[in-house]
């Protein structure tokens, strides 16, 4: 797998430092609340685990799975709910934890879903923000790194379900996904 990576953007140490920084911010902002942490499957699992372990607040956790990539390198433009939230979000402070905010379609879909279900507040924490890919106006409240407009994998991010288990975020060599 490592041979498929053009270059490492964020090392394991870089990510750990970002998780610690974000965990402190979230601890401060949620000190007197019990947020429902909503991890977006499957990409955000590693990040959710690492950042929430840095939070010193009472919290509950749930998961949602939405898809717009369908295994490719570009969003299909259509977002579908694969696995719904189990918890009732009505009147709750919800913190969405995402691996990457790219086009904004997936995030807007989840935010709109939570608002329709009467969440008290909705905030977003993302490992990576790719503003150059934005199609819809959405913003993350907490950002680990702003990422360039390249196809990245690792630390939860995938290509066709692979590379998620890399301990870093790297740029996938174009020859891996071109003409496939």
Automatic annotation (TrEMBL):
<dbReference type="GO" id="GO:0046100">
    <property type="term" value="P:hypoxanthine metabolic process"/>
</dbReference>
<keyword id="KW-0328">Glycosyltransferase</keyword>
<protein>
    <recommendedName>
        <fullName>Hypoxanthine phosphoribosyltransferase</fullName>
        <ecNumber>2.4.2.8</ecNumber>
    </recommendedName>
</protein>
<dbReference type="GO" id="GO:0005829">
    <property type="term" value="C:cytosol"/>
</dbReference>
<dbReference type="GO" id="GO:0032263">
    <property type="term" value="P:GMP salvage"/>
</dbReference>
<dbReference type="GO" id="GO:0000287">
    <property type="term" value="F:magnesium ion binding"/>
</dbReference>
<dbReference type="GO" id="GO:0032264">
    <property type="term" value="P:IMP salvage"/>
</dbReference>
<dbReference type="InterPro" id="IPR029057">
    <property type="entry name" value="PRTase-like"/>
</dbReference>
<keyword id="KW-0808">Transferase</keyword>
<dbReference type="GO" id="GO:0004422">
    <property type="term" value="F:hypoxanthine phosphoribosyltransferase activity"/>
</dbReference>
<dbReference type="GO" id="GO:0000166">
    <property type="term" value="F:nucleotide binding"/>
</dbReference>
<comment type="pathway">
    <text>Purine metabolism; IMP biosynthesis via salvage pathway; IMP from hypoxanthine: step 1/1.</text>
</comment>
<comment type="pathway">
    <text>Purine metabolism; GMP biosynthesis via salvage pathway; GMP from guanine: step 1/1.</text>
</comment>
<dbReference type="InterPro" id="IPR000836">
    <property type="entry name" value="PRTase_dom"/>
</dbReference>
<feature type="domain" description="Phosphoribosyltransferase">
    <location>
        <begin position="12"/>
        <end position="160"/>
    </location>
</feature>
<keyword id="KW-0479">Metal-binding</keyword>
<dbReference type="GO" id="GO:0006166">
    <property type="term" value="P:purine ribonucleoside salvage"/>
</dbReference>
<keyword id="KW-0963">Cytoplasm</keyword>
<comment type="function">
    <text>Purine salvage pathway enzyme that catalyzes the transfer of the ribosyl-5-phosphate group from 5-phospho-alpha-D-ribose 1-diphosphate (PRPP) to the N9 position of the 6-oxopurines hypoxanthine and guanine to form the corresponding ribonucleotides IMP (inosine 5'-monophosphate) and GMP (guanosine 5'-monophosphate), with the release of PPi.</text>
</comment>
<dbReference type="GO" id="GO:0006178">
    <property type="term" value="P:guanine salvage"/>
</dbReference>
<dbReference type="Pfam" id="PF00156">
    <property type="entry name" value="Pribosyltran"/>
</dbReference>
<dbReference type="InterPro" id="IPR050408">
    <property type="entry name" value="HGPRT"/>
</dbReference>
<keyword id="KW-0547">Nucleotide-binding</keyword>
<dbReference type="InterPro" id="IPR005904">
    <property type="entry name" value="Hxn_phspho_trans"/>
</dbReference>
<keyword id="KW-0460">Magnesium</keyword>
<comment type="similarity">
    <text>Belongs to the purine/pyrimidine phosphoribosyltransferase family.</text>
</comment>
<keyword id="KW-0660">Purine salvage</keyword>
<dbReference type="GO" id="GO:0052657">
    <property type="term" value="F:guanine phosphoribosyltransferase activity"/>
</dbReference>
